[in-house]
Amino acid sequence: MDLSLSTETIGDRTIVRVGGEIDVYTAPKLREQLVELVNDGNFHLVVDMEGVDFLDSTGLGVLVGGLKRVRAHEGSLRLVCNQERILKIFRITGLTKVFPIHSSVEEAVAATD
């Protein structure tokens, strides 16, 4: 399976909608997108993972790297995920303490944490 990416802006938030699998083969595509957004001055990102079927450690590394990039500009990176199998990966790795995880894009955009 491949990775699909699309972006849109809501207020000062940039939504990155991700679909498919985030793995060792597709993660560089997501990394490029996040780097490009930050380089273009988008420091408040919401990564919508509702369409993600699979996530491996490479994908987690890309998300952590994206978080470090936006934090360097006093920005934020929030995740939207309501799939138990993906949420379990964040819980097991302890990344639920690192990423604000929301159940909808609307909730993530409205959040002020």
From TrEMBL:
Matches recorded under PROSITE patterns:
STAS
The cross-references to InterPro entries, in alphabetical order and at most eight, read: Anti-sigma_ant, STAS_dom, STAS_dom_sf
Please report the stretch or stretches of sequence annotated as the STAS domain: 3-112
Family matches, as Pfam families: STAS (PF01740)
Q: Which family does it belong to?
A: Belongs to the anti-sigma-factor antagonist family.
Q: What is this protein called?
A: Anti-sigma factor antagonist
